[in-house]
Write a structure and sequence with these properties.
- The protein is α/β, with parallel strands linked by helices.
- 35% of the residues lie in helices and 24% in strands.
- It contains 9 helices and 14 strands.
- Strand 5, helix 5 and strand 6 form a beta-alpha-beta unit.
- Helix 4 runs parallel beside helix 5, helix 5 packs antiparallel against helix 9 and helix 7 crosses helix 9.
- The radius of gyration is 21 Å and the shape is globular.
């Protein structure tokens, strides 16, 4: 039986990226929508004439829905998540979950006390190719030693309702994805170095971030820019087993295995590789990972209901990602 879910916020991001995947997820049934903006509510009513469209999220919190999906201005994410948990709801909240790591850890304590699942919408970890990377590493008892991510995003100029400059917006709205994925692959982060390049156009942000584990045995470099005409992601992973994993825009995966077929060093004459790509039958909408993160959220809720255990604590990971970003955007000499 599908879980019932109410949506709080019917804005552009929800309509374009989350809603199609929510409707396509057989694990959920959308039962209500709430939004403060009258014109947005009118659009929701026109699209879903038989669905309750409310002007106050409290009406969803007071209802009998199993879960809520929060996709509003980020400034309200923490408080809405806290209210939802206190109302006994499982929560999917779009990134970023605020800018303060400690407030996120407070939510983790509350979620544990209420025995509820909270998922944060950093969907890169759920993209099929990235899940396959996790599977490969687990099956081969391998870890990432060197990680190199290059990513370009469209320009970021402003977001209504959140008083952040272009650099902070770029990090909390876009760069958060490669940072979160890198942190997921490396584990604990012991050292953070970030360099911001001088901009050449208004609103453009270009950065290079290096993350190092506390033991100094693994590192990631993230080169990210806004203001591009293309949304492009390239990742290169060197593992402790000598395997090389290359990921192209979360669509294609190539693994160069060791040893090679003929037992040589794997030069240009002999490079043994395994290839994978998402394929034409993929049924996700928008960028890769949205459908998968919602399905994973539903599975965690059902597991929690069956076992009484919420499972993986995504909030601690979200807090650690915010700590990395806080260091990157801190003024020189400041303590992030």
């Amino acid at each position: 039986m599908p879980l019932s879910i109410g949506a709080i916020g019917f804005g552009r991001h929800f309509r374009r990226s989350l809603l199609p995947n929510l409707l396509g997820c057989e694990r959920f049934t959308l039962t209500a929508v709430a939004d403060k903006d009258p014109s947005t509510r009118a659009e929701a009513t026109a699209r879903f004439p038989h669905l309750p469209v409310l002007n106050d999220a409290k009406e969803i919190f007071d209802s009998d829905v199993d879960a809520v999906l929060i996709s509003t201005h980020p400034a309200g994410h923490v408080e809405l998540t806290r209210t939802a948990l206190n109302a006994g709801k499982h929560v999917f909240v779009e990134k970023p979950l605020g800018t303060d790591p400690e407030s996120v850890r407070e939510l983790a304590v509350l979620a544990h006390r209420m025995n509820k699942v909270v998922a944060v919408g950093t969907m890169w970890r759920h993209a099929p190719a990235h899940r396959l990377v996790d599977q490969w590493l687990t099956e081969h008892q391998a870890a990432v030693r060197l990680l190199d991510i290059s990513v370009t995003f469209p320009a970021v100029y402003a977001r209504d309702g959140w008083d952040l400059g272009a650099e902070e917006l770029a990090f909390y709205d876009m760069f958060i994805h490669p940072i979160d994925w890198a942190r997921h692959l490396l584990g604990d982060i012991g050292r953070i170095d970030a360099v911001q390049l001088a901009g050449t156009r208004p609103g453009e942000v270009t950065t290079s971030v290096r993350l190092l584990t506390p033991a100094g045995d693994a590192a990631a470099t993230i080169n990210a820019a806004t203001g591009s005409h293309a949304y492009q992601v390239s990742a290169w992973l060197h593992t402790t087993t000598g395997d090389l994993i290359e990921v192209d825009t979360k669509d294609r995966l190539r693994v160069t295995t060791a040893p090679t077929w003929s037992g040589t060093e794997g030069s240009l004459r002999d490079r043994a590789t395994l290839g994978w790509e998402v394929g034409q039958l993929y049924r996700g909408w928008a960028r890769k990972g949205y459908a998968e993160e919602l399905a994973a959220f539903a599975d965690r809720i059902k597991s929690c209901i069956a076992t009484g255990i919420p499972g993986e604590d995504e909030l601690e990971g979200a807090a650690r990602t915010l700590e990395v970003i806080g260091h990157c955007v801190a003024p020189p000499g400041a303590v992030a």
